[in-house]
Amino acid sequence: MTLRFPWLLLLAALGAALLWWTWPRHALPYPAIDWKSGIQRGDQAASDVVLREYDAAGALRLLARAQTAYHLPAGNRTYLSDLSVQRFRAQGNFSLQAAHGLLQNGDQELTVWGQVLATLAPDNTLRTDELHYDPKTGILRTSSPVYLTHGRSRLQGTGLWASIKQEQFQLLSGVQGVYEP
To answer: Is the per-residue pLDDT at 38 higher than 60?
Structure first.
C-alpha cells in the first residue's frame, strides 16, 4: 500500500505539467463565451453571459453581453434578455442595446426588440421597437417606426435599411424631419 501514494503523486504532477504546457498563451482568434453565473437545465440556459470575438491579431472586435440566454437546439435559436452589443471599428464603434434578442441561423442574424437603441457614431443614434442585424454584412433593417438623430437634426419614418460598413441609411416611408446645422 505504501507504493501507491508516490505513483499517484507523480501522476498528478505529470497531469498538472501537461495542462500548464498546453494552456494557450495568447488571445484566441475566435469567439469565446464566458459563463459567469450558474448554468441551468443542462447547458441550455445561463445568466450573465459575455461573448468576445477577436480578430487574427488578437484585438477585440466584438463584445456582447446578455443578462440571460436560453438556447433551443431545435431550430438553433438562442433567446437573450437585457443585451448589449459593441462592434469596435476604425471609423467609430457601433453599439446596440435592447430588452430582448433572438440569435438565429447559427449566429448569422440577431433580431432585437423592446427599447432598441443603436449608436452609430458619437452623435448618431437610432431608436425603434424592433431591428434585424446581420453581423456578417453589417446590415440593419426594420419595418417598425424609426427615430434617427444626428447632432441636433432629427428624422423619423417607418422602415429602415442601413449598411453600417458603408455608412448608408434609408428610411423607407413616411419620412419627416428637422435639419439643424
So the answer is: no
41-50 own/partner pairs: CB under 8 Å, 24+ apart: 43/71, 44/70, 44/71, 44/72, 44/73, 45/69, 45/70, 45/71, 49/80
From CA 87, how far away is CA 64, in angstroms rounded? Answer: 9
Domains of the chain: 28-178 (2.60.450.10)
- Alpha carbons 101 and 103: distance in angstroms, whole number: 7
Rounded distance between C-alpha atoms, residue 143 and residue 130, angstroms: 8
86 forms beta bridges with 63, 95
**pTM value?**
0.70
What CA–CA distance (Å, rounded) separates 178 from 65?
Answer: 34
Sign of CA dihedral 37, 105, 142, 155: positive
What would the mean pLDDT of 159-168 be, rounded to a whole number? 86
Grid cell for residue 80: 437573450
Quote the pLDDT of residue 166.
Answer: 81
